[in-house]
């Protein structure tokens, strides 16, 4: 596999970052939405600690992605869509960066305002972003929650877009991001509708 | 004349009831703080309501005695979830045991300002004997009492069972006392007669 992306496919680094973040975010959403209802127990505290560690990891990976995006070429867009749809797709991807950076920061602020410890996987102690503050804690919690539902909505749009490309347009937009997709999958981007009757 | 009579009376009282020799103090301001460890990170807390009954005289340690009631519901660690958990069944269980009590027994002087008491502390239904080293210093308007002890939370059954592991919550809890005391007015004449 080639680390960098080119005009027809995503490189290994971009794919690895994409899928690691994808798995982490889905886990965080499922965990985050269920763990709040648990009865207070050591397991609940451990689950929260894990949620925070994975969340901080996503923040680091997103900053890394942002940097990598700056130096890595991007494969050509599979065109043919209405201009506003093309615009929406680009905006959606940018919004993902914004949300996936804002999300862990809102959690970090929430954690600091609630005066909880923050140790990345029990190893690296991270500083509190703000002093203990009940009003800010409540606000940060609400922001964290609203962002969660926004991310879920965007995730649905993202997956729907990928499936539209794969099933309707029959281009390689989805395939070229798949972890073990062969390079040949990206060899015919110019004829998206070749299999159509 | 009446002044002299009072002095005689006070001196007489000293022989009749030795315990009045030791002065009673009232707390002007005070802090009862504790620090523990959660998930490997230290946190600070304090009890906002406690009632110290302090009777002390460095020259009459036999009559000196501290008796402190601590309202456990007033524990504040600046963390709502943790404070709620602290009040619950698994920790202080304030429903059944709203107050902790600290009582000293015999005291020894180490030097002019340092002392040590044999004491008992009762939290929940557990009474634990402990050594209580403290300093007691006269100040311009009374006295200052400070102490620091380290307790094992499991000795009191605080966070036993599911919470027993020290990976979640450390076993050692450091407790710090800082009291600014005034001489309680009622005993003041007897105390002044003595000096």
Structure in words:
- The complex is a heterodimer of chains A (197) and B (195).
- Chain A has a single domain (12-183), classed as Transmembrane di-heme cytochromes, Chain C (Fumarate Reductase Cytochrome B subunit, Up-down Bundle), CATH 1.20.950.20.
- The two termini of chain A are 34 Å apart.
- In chain A, strand 1 and strand 2 form a beta hairpin.
- Chain A has helices at residues 12-35, 42-71, 83-113, 134-169; strands at 119-120, 124-125.
- With 197 residues, chain A is mainly α.
- Residues 183-197 of chain A have low confidence and may be disordered.
- Chain A has four helices and two strands; from the N terminus they run αααββα.
- Chain B has a single domain, classed as Lipid/polyisoprenoid-binding, YceI-like (Lipocalin, Beta Barrel).
- Chain B starts with a helix and ends with a helix.
- Chain A binds chain B through residues 40-42, 45-46, 49, 114-119, 122, 125, 132, 134, 137, and chain B through 38-41, 43, 77-82, 84-85, 88, 162-163, 165, 168.
């Amino acid at each position: 596999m080639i680390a960098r992306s080119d005009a027809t496919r995503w490189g290994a680094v971009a794919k690895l970052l994409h899928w690691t973040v994808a798995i982490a975010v889905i886990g965080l959403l499922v965990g985050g939405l269920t763990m709040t209802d648990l009865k207070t127990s050591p397991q609940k505290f451990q689950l929260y600690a894990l949620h925070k560690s994975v969340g901080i990891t996503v923040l680091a990976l997103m900053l890394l992605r942002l940097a990598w995006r700056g130096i890595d070429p991007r494969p050509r867009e599979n065109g043919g869509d209405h201009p506003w749809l093309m615009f929406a797709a680009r905006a959606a991807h940018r919004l993902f960066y914004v949300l996936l950076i804002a999300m862990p920061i809102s959690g970090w602020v929430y954690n600091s305002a609630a005066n909880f410890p923050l140790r990345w996987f029990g190893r690296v102690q991270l500083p509190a972003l703000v002093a203990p503050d009940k009003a800010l804690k409540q606000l940060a919690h609400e922001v964290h929650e609203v962002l969660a539902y926004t991310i879920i909505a965007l995730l649905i749009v993202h997956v729907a877009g990928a499936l539209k490309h794969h099933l309707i347009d029959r281009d390689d937009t989805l395939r070229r991001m798949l972890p073990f997709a062969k390079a040949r999958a990206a060899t015919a981007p110019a004829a998206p509708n070749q299999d159509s009757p | 004349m009446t002044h002299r009579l009072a002095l005689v009376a006070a001196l007489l009282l000293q022989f009749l009831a030795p315990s009045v020799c030791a002065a009673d103090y009232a707390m002007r301001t005070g802090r009862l703080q504790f620090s523990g460890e959660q998930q490997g990170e230290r946190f600070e807390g304090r009890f906002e309501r406690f009632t110290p009954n302090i009777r002390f005289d460095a020259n009459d340690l036999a009559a000196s005695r501290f008796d402190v009631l601590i309202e456990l519901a007033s524990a504040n660690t600046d963390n709502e979830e943790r404070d709620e958990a602290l009040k619950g069944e698994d920790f202080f269980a304030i429903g059944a045991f709203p107050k902790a009590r600290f009582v000293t027994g015999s005291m020894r002087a180490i030097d002019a300002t340092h002392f040590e008491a044999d004491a008992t502390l009762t939290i929940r239904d557990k009474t634990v004997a402990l050594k209580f080293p403290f300093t007691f210093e006269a100040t311009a308007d009374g006295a200052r009492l400070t102490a620091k002890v380290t307790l094992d939370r499991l000795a009191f059954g605080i966070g036993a069972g599911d919470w027993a592991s020290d990976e979640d919550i450390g076993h050692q809890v450091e407790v710090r006392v800082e009291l600014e005391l005034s001489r309680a007015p009622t005993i003041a004449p007897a105390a002044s007669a003595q000096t």
